[in-house]
Amino acid sequence: MGQDKIVGAIEIGTSKVIVLVAEIIGGKSLNIIGESHATASGMRKGQIISLREVSDCTHKAIAEAEKSSGAQIDSAYLAISGAHLQGFYDSGVATVSSASGIVTESDIRRARENAKMRNLPPGRVYLHHECCGFLLDGRRVADPVGMVGEKVETGYWHIHGDERLTADHIHVVNGIGLNVDCMVVSAIASASVAAGDEEKKNGVLVIDIGAGTTDYALYRFGTILRTGVVPIGGDHVTNDLAIGLRMNARYAESVKLRFGKGVLDITDKNDTVMLIGDLTIGDRPIPRLAIDKIVHARIEELFMIVKNQLGSDLGPQNVPSGVILTGGTARLPHICDAAQEVLGVPARLADSPQWVSDPQLCVPEYSTALGLLSEGFATLRASYREAASKKWYSRLSGIFGK
Amino acid sequence: MAQNEKETDAQARREWSDIQQADRRGATTAVARRRRTVRLWRMAGLGTLAAVLCVALVTAYVSASRNATALEPSAFLAKVTFRTDGVLTDRWLSKALDIREGMAMGSIDVASIRRRLEESGQIKSASVTLRLPSELVIEVREKIPFLRASAQTPEGTKLLLVSEDGAIFEGANYPLNTLRALPYVDGVSFRKRGDGYEPIADVAPVAAFLSTARARWPKIYRDWTIVSLKRYKGLSQGSVIEVKSRTLGTLQFTPDNVEDQLRRLFGALTGGALNDPRQVTGVNLTIPGQAIFDYGDAKVPGKTQSSKPQGGR
Amino acid sequence: MDNEELSQAFPGLDDKRLRVKIIGVGGAGGNAVDRIKLDDLGQVALAVVNTDTKSMASSPIQEKLLVGRSITRGLSTGGEAEIGRKAAEEDAALIEKMVDGVDLVFLLAGLGGGTGSGCAPVVAKAASKSGALVLAFVTMPFTREGERRRKQAEDALSELRQCCDAVIALPNDMLLQQIDEKATVLEAFAIADEWVSRGVKAIWGMLFQSGMINVDFATLRAAFRYRGGKTLFGLGCGEGEDCVKKALADLELCPLLHLPDYKYAKADSLILNICGGPNLAMSQVNEIMDAVCEKFGSRQNTVLGAVIDGAMRDAIRITVIGTTDVSGAGQGQRPSATRPAMQTAPNAHSSAPAADQARRLDERASQHEFNFQNGEERGFFDATETNLYNGEDLDVPTFLRRGIRVQLQ
Fold it and tell me: Is C385 on the interface with A (CB under 8 A)?
């Protein structure tokens, strides 16, 4: 099988469709060769409300990206988010079968299978299984193969979603004649690039606040402990402002971008700003405090929900590396202060990944798409490697078998 | 309830990859249609190109290997190369076939030329190839005659030749000496078949016998004038080849074990047992181990000589 | 609109004999009626329907109807809408008698509780069946009142939309924005009542108050011919020299009228009532008419009323009530047999093909966008599934649910 191909990472976000085109050379290296983004329509809170509109803008973005790269996409990676995503933890145990007590690959395989036994209710599909590491006789080990023990346990964070909504998502891409090779949950995609390896090992919470949804992933021991989606994003802030300040969504968006901040600022008490700012008819003064109150209420609530969902998993001792914020709404000034205030751990904004050179891509809005590309690439590479190691393993066991 | 559980079971552990993906699923948009069309055209273009290339290659190959009969009329025959393992000449060829230099290559029918050559009698097999752009190459293998015959035809006496496979044909271009050296055949009837004659059946042992005689005992063979196949019945019992020799009268051989018979004859002739070879009117060699000489009616009758082959090498 | 001609054509609709009844259902509804009782409306009968003897006893209204005596034994429903409904259905005969012969019913109720959510639809159905024009003013519960009450209120609201000619839903969350930061919940309820009574008075005023431009009942009835849709309702007040401008600015800021995008905020049928002091000038009326029509609908679809209130002096009050045609022309309307006045509807007069087509073109958009004027204020997220978390709809602005007061002035 040829390992040179052109892949497209497609993120159909609530406000934007982002398509990155990359070239995989020899199954090893990945080069971004094209990019495009289009304003998304027909999306709310990470879910498709109009298949036609979403298809329209997604197809446009794909065609645009192909044009910018000058290549035809062979296969697509797709990011998925939305309130329908749910996760649960399940673990599997296997007793070590060899007489010497040395853990073998087959013990691990049995434990893995046991961890993936659970059936889903009708209409739900698994989207991802994230291995959360191994316990050998209750001890956390990175790779138990070859070690001596009696019982090996592995845990998985399983993410599942609504089958129909997932199928809709896939079919949008199918509509242009592309097959989805790899599906990555947005939370994992953005977290994988936003946090560094050291941070993932220590424990870190990555929160990607987009326009329609907030996706988070909690890392510990270098693996994902859990993920989640809160169907709240920047659109909610805009909508709150539109209703609270009684203006249309367009002005509300501009007010949010110009004056919104994540904290209540007492110095704004008597300050007012102009709604439109160009002295046209209908322009009127708005108390800054009103804006602050509306935005802060929403942001505070958002972090509160994240905090409630994570429960005891979140705490300074569990996330020593703190909270990393990314996504378009992370551009809101002082949002880190709000996160810190609610979550009780230090928060900072994500750095852009080192391997991306294009400054245009080094903005929080692109973290999901970039993560999608690298995660999708890693998944496929892992499957190549697995295929290769299987050969290697069977050869080795053949030698020892004699 | 139970049914419900079953349903759950059937749906169990569905992964996203179980969702069917198909080209025509989802909404088709103008962009998707355009992309598809472009792909289709590109594919069609590539396909057409490949097809054209294929056709071109095949055509070139076919025309090269078959020396295409359907060539453009602008190519003309410039040279005819004729090769043979026998005696035929270019002149014979141009008389036998109506091919001229300067005729259109397209009008040359290779297969019919070959057929005509092989039907001409003297030619065992022929290969005819057109070598582009303007050459015709004809290679033939000729039959080798070992007997001759005079046939009475309405047009007069005609010389016919018998080849080793029994075919009877009118020889052409043989030097007179070669023809004279051939014994006449006798005791066979020539039956017409088409333009030629029916071949003589089972003549190969006779040919082998004569060629052995000619090669090993040329002095004996030199005097042979007629080979009669009157009593020849192939390799079966009682089959006799009668040869008229200028010096020894009628010699009788069986078609098998010819070498032994010839050696016996030679031994008898050179052993000094022969009184006067000129008196001999015949030698019967058909009885194994004996060479029975006839000395005509006036001379010593019944004198037989049992001659052991001597010094047979 | 030629009123005289109308009256001649349909003598039964003469203003003088018009019977109007304001019915309060449940505790909150009763309180609202009480408030209206305090202002003198004249020519209007007041009534309350309740299951709770105690709260009814404290009401000064004459006509009181206790329903479901055998079910609740004169006690409250305990917040169960189902009990409220059963109580009302049991005494359906009494309710029918109460609305019999009434031309215009104002139905006032606080949704979310047992009696309000359960009885109000029953009363509305009975009134509608008897041929009355039914306009409902209902309040939606505070988010902090909890998930169950919200659900009950929403169910009742959608039921009311089907059987009333207009339903004006006032979310308490939103009303809270109108009061002072330190106000108590009771004061918030009082505000809700105040809004309801202003709405009722605006319509009553058009029919009965002496004024420059009065509206007859047939016109009013025609204006409410679209059923099932959401009703736009807004108020604006202005005082002093620039009262017109101030009133319009106030109207624009009315939280109930707030739409994310004004562009689509058109009603298919609009009632505009202007209430001013004795020196209200025709030019002022025209100015307001122009501004309102531009914003909410075409002039042809607007029924204008302008009344003089001696107590108003140099103040102006604007009330806007609009309905929209949710399912294309025809559907959701009452059978025309019970609505002879429909032929004279302003829209019917102007049913020139072009206008009709324009309206239809606008229908989809207006229907879609008009959904914003829902009591739930989901705005932008209206087309999506509700975003429930611990019984709260997360798409509703946090500050509304939390009762955080946002001051705009």
Answer: yes
Residues 235-254 of C with CB under 8 A from A: 249, 252-254
- Encode A334-373: b = buried (16+ Cβ within 10 Å), e = exposed: bbbebbbbbbebebeebebbeebeeeebeebbbbbbbbbb
Residue C263: its pLDDT value, please? 35
List of domains in chain B: 79-142 (3.10.20.310), 145-294 (3.40.50.11690)
Do the beta carbons of residue B262 and residue B220 sit within 8 Å?
Answer: yes
> In which band, very low, low, confident or very high, does the pLDDT at A215 lie, cut at 50, 70 and 90?
very high
Q: What is the SS3 assignment for C218?
A: helix
Q: What stretch of H or E contains A5?
A: strand A5-12
Strand residues in C7-132 grouped as ranges (E):
20-25, 44-50, 63-66, 104-110
From A303's Cα to the closest Cα of chain C, the distance in A is 13
Q: Looking at this predicted complex, what is its ipTM?
A: 0.81
Contact B39 A59 (CB under 8 A): no
Paired tokens of C283: 């030019």
Q: Which domain holds residue A314?
A: 230-349
Answer whether A226's CB lies under 8 Å from A310's CB.
yes
pLDDT band at residue A185 under the 50/70/90 scheme: very high
Chains A–C, number of C-beta pairs less than 8 Å apart = 99
Nearest one of B9, C385, B11, B14 to A158, comparing CA atoms: B14
Higher pLDDT, C351 or A329: A329
In a domain? residue A90: yes
Q: Which residues of B116-149 are buried (b: 16+ CB within 10 A; e: fewer)?
A: bbeebbbbbebebebeeeeebebebebbbbbbbb
**Overall domain count for chain A:** 2
Average pLDDT estimate for A195-203? 88
Look at residue C323 and tell me whether its pLDDT is greater than 80: no
Residue C367: pLDDT band by 50, 70, 90 thresholds? very low
What pTM does this model have? 0.59
**Which of residues B56 and A103 earns the better pLDDT score?**
B56
Do A61 and A18 meet the contact criterion of CB atoms below 8 Å apart? yes
Residue B96 has pLDDT above 60, yes or no: yes
- Measured distance CA(C295)–CA(C251) in Å, rounded: 11
User: How much is the average pLDDT of A3-19?
Assistant: 88
Q: Classify the phi-psi angles of C42: left when phi > 0, otherwise alpha if psi is within -120 to 50, otherwise beta.
A: left
Instruction: List Cβ neighbours of B272 (8 Å cut-off, separation of 6 or more).
Output: none
Determine the pLDDT at residue A392.
56
- Supply the Cα-derived Rg of chain C in whole angstroms: 20
pLDDT at C356: 46
HSE-up (13 A, CA, CB side) for residue B208:
12
- Burial (CB count within 10 angstroms: exposed 0-12, middle 13-18, buried 19+), residue C178: middle
* Partner residue opposite B35 with nearest CB, options A63, A125, A174: A63
CA distance C12 to C35: 31
Q: Whose CA is closest to A81, among A54, A55, A50, A46? A: A46
CA–CA separation, B165 and B199 (whole Å):
8
Mean pLDDT across A156-182: 89
Q: Are A211 and A235 a contacting pair, CB within 8 Å?
A: yes
CA distance linking residue A103 with residue A375, whole number of Å: 29
* pLDDT tens by residue, A36-72: 989 988 888 888 888 888 999 999 999 999 999 888 8
Q: Which residue has the tokens 């009065």?
A: C214
Q: Which residue of A has its CA nearest to C258?
A: A246
Contact between A174 and B21 using a beta-carbon 8 Å cutoff: yes
Give the sheet arrangement for strand C269-276, strand by strand. Answer: C211-213, C302-308, C269-276, C315-323, C232-239
Query: Which structural domains are found in chain C, ordered by start?
Result: 17-208 (3.40.50.1440), 221-375 (3.30.1330.20)
Query: Looking at residue A264, which CATH number applies to its domain?
Result: 3.30.420.40
